[in-house]
Amino acid sequence: MKSFEEALDLMLSCEYHAQTEKVDIMECLGRILAEDVTSDINMPPFDKSAMDGYAARRCDLGKPLEVIETIKAGDIPQKKIHTCQCSKIMTGSIIPEGADCVIMVEETEQHTANTILFTGRYRKSNIALKAEDIAVGTVVLKKSTLIRPQEVAVLATVGCVQPLVFKMPRIIILSTGDEIVEPHIKPSNGKIRNSNAYQLHAQILKMHFKSSYGGIICDTPQKLEETLAHALSNHDLIILTGGISMGDYDYVPDILKKLGVDLCVQKIDIKPGKPTIFGQKHNTFVFGLPGNPVSSFVIFELFTKPFIYKMAGHTYEPRVLSLPMADDYTVKGINRLSWQPIVITPQKTVEAVRYHGSGHIHALSKADGIMRVEAGKAKILKGEQVHVRQI
Amino acid sequence: MKSFEEALDLMLSCEYHAQTEKVDIMECLGRILAEDVTSDINMPPFDKSAMDGYAARRCDLGKPLEVIETIKAGDIPQKKIHTCQCSKIMTGSIIPEGADCVIMVEETEQHTANTILFTGRYRKSNIALKAEDIAVGTVVLKKSTLIRPQEVAVLATVGCVQPLVFKMPRIIILSTGDEIVEPHIKPSNGKIRNSNAYQLHAQILKMHFKSSYGGIICDTPQKLEETLAHALSNHDLIILTGGISMGDYDYVPDILKKLGVDLCVQKIDIKPGKPTIFGQKHNTFVFGLPGNPVSSFVIFELFTKPFIYKMAGHTYEPRVLSLPMADDYTVKGINRLSWQPIVITPQKTVEAVRYHGSGHIHALSKADGIMRVEAGKAKILKGEQVHVRQI
To answer: Are residues B243 and B144 in the same domain?
Structure first.
């Protein structure tokens, strides 16, 4: 049995070779950069007005200024600013030669038909200097960066419309277990509906990755072996749900071994999710997640998500908070490290979500996060800071 | 000029009639339920074993127990448990008649070929009772719920494979401004690349919504009017980027008014993002966002995102934290409420992202959130709690 940290380290230290591809900037959200991105331009490319106003010489601001030109964004100024002259200028436009400041429209008044007066107090130039944000050749985004909307803006700015990213792993979800039926079927006695596969599919989609769903494999060793062998040759990651426990009818681990999968994790000292397995065969990986929805969700968050990001070239950092407990809380089952669904109250305190057993379907639907409770910790007192991972 | 709260209230109180549609459960992530979802089954549908073990009678646990049957998940038990009998049972299987507990395999030992002995200490029944999670007819998800992976699991569990959701608003992004060129073009003097439209597209995609991009409209009143008139008749939400300021060449507000748009917000007392506009024409809405990427990003987060969720039938609650400032911080421009990009340090303190002017492209790429600073607040002291919205 591996500890939480041992299991995670083992997974994240596996070697995986990801290929790369170019994607369109409109499609790159959530992808991971496979190379540094540099700028092909200066930003701003010229000394630029940060205001709608008048470009002038600071030393002239006490006197009436003749308006000699109007410069709008995209225009090239035609006239140089000389003593007691100014040009009307729009935000983003090129500062004309001779000018060293822009004064705001709101701080001027018309003096004569063709002259204005500055009525404000001089504070700053209102000029964004050429290259002050980015100079040509600067690395603006590093390899392995996850592309969020902010990074899309950076890519657009430097003209990187086809960023080189790591290929997304080809992920397949397979369900096992004679007792599960697909959600459109009303389960007869002894059967339950498959919810894990759909939840996993959505967890992957939420990361802006994709998975295919291979359906429910009936629990005969032959059928399982055939399906797993095929999945191993055609995917980078297989996620199995259900059927990974100690039961007589859970053939999965043995079949995986027979197929050449090195099962380096077969149990994790964690609650929920002890019967989690993880293995590798060459460049293909297998996760076997526990059969109940809460365990499956939590184990995906703790292990599978960071692993998928690793496959895609990125080091995932979960969002962790330290918040005070809202009330005294007695821990159930203190022999293992546990992760417990919690709600963050409007007062920013933590309340455990009351649930019985790891299969309670509502537990996660109400939760804002999961709280880490160390093994041996029997009670958390009101006000005590707890470690929360947002979900 | 509207205050932040006035502007937001005005937007969120607008009437919008969203239509509904059924979507496949595999495609419903991020959608919003248009009706309550009830369960068509009991959960669990039967008294179910929470363990791999032996189903027995608690009163017999001190004696050798005869194993009379093996029940795997999906099986219907064939035999009733009588005195000193038990059935081997797998997790998730139906509890046989007569049994009132399940003992773990690990806490038993083989006694004779056909009998076992319980070697543990009795703690709990390990039986999940019929309907203890959900009874038939119970509302499991309420109308207006945002569907996350956890809710997908609930939908699958209750057999709702085609949930009724609100239609996504048809969103179009239009860029204006003679000075902007598309990212694939190297800008000549006076021009800058369009990054806002791509950032906005990704911000919407991150919400799992969609937008179309209408390109850059050149800044002639005729062309703008034509394009806006067409957009107004074919979309539910138009997002304009660039061209919404006080400049002589920013015709947009006047054209919108001419086209019958009621511009109920024309300026917001906020930094960045003062030149934000918002309007309505019947069931179609228009946002005009400021032209620089940081302002555009922030205003989208503060106003457009909650508004899109409102259009889709959901009340958006941003993730707000209260964290201490890492160091003394002097606020620039204290006359307006401001939202400042910040980093959350590993110590869970807040550091402002140093940036000059709202156009600094890197400011958001480094940020974890935006910090609210009230108007008039000149300095935030080290250790002072600040209001942070995660991005």
So the answer is: no
Q: B130 — contact with chain A (CB < 8 Å)?
A: no
Helix ranges (DSSP H) in B166-323:
196-206, 221-234, 252-258, 293-299, 305-311
Task: Please indicate whether, in this complex, the C-beta atoms of B297 and A361 are within 8 angstroms of each other.
Answer: no
> Please, are residues A151 and B364 in contact by the beta-carbon 8 Å criterion?
no
Residues A149, A224: one domain?
no
Q: What does the alpha-carbon distance between residue A68 and residue A56 come to, in Å, rounded to a whole number?
A: 11
Whether residues A172 and A303 share a domain: the answer is yes
Say what the pLDDT of residue A122 is. Answer: 85
**Backbone angles phi and psi of A310, in degrees to 5:** -60, -45
Both A214 and A302 in a single domain?
Answer: yes
Domain region containing B357? 320-390
* Residue in A240, A227, A203, A245 with CA at minimum distance from that of residue A358: A245
Q: How far is A355 from chain B (nearest CA, A)?
A: 9
Phi, psi for residue B335 in degrees, rounded to 5: -80, -15
Chain segment B328-358, per-residue pLDDT in tens: 999 987 899 999 999 999 999 999 997 765 4
pTM value is 0.89
Nearest CA in chain A to B29: A202
Taking the Cβ of residue B183 and every Cβ of chain A, the question of whether any pair is shorter than 8 Å is answered with: yes
CA R_g for chain A: 30
pLDDT > 90 fraction of chain B, expressed in percent and rounded: 76
Give the B window 250-289 contacts with A, CB below 8 Å. none
Strand-pair partners of B193: B181
Q: Which of A90, A94, A159 sits opposite B248 (nearest CB)?
A: A90
3-state secondary structure of A323: strand
From B311, B341, B359, give the residue that closes a domain. Answer: B311
Q: Which residues of A touch B74 (CB under 8 A)?
A: 177-180, 190-191
Residue A71: predicted pLDDT = 93
From CA A256, how far away is CA B301, in angstroms rounded?
Answer: 46
Task: Write the Ramachandran bin of B351: left for phi over 0, alpha for psi from -120 to 50, otherwise beta.
Answer: beta
- pLDDT of residue A362 exceeding 80: no
A287 and A216, same domain (yes or no): yes
Chain A to chain B, count of Cβ pairs less than 8 Å apart? 287
| Mutation target among A305, A365, A385 for the B interface, most CBs of B within 10 A | A365
Average pLDDT over residues A280-295: 92
Would an 8 Å CB–CB cutoff place B192 in contact with chain A?
A: yes
What DSSP string runs through A109-170?
Answer: EEEETTEEEE-S------EEPTTSSB-TT-EEE-TT-B--HHHHHHHHHTT-SS-EEEPPP-
What residues does B103 pair with on adjacent strands?
Answer: B54
According to the model, what pLDDT value does residue B179 have? 79
SS3 content of chain B, % helix, strand, coil (to 5): 20, 30, 50
Which residues, 6+ apart, have CB-to-CB distance to A230 below 8 Å?
none
Q: Which residues of A touch B105 (CB under 8 A)?
A: 246
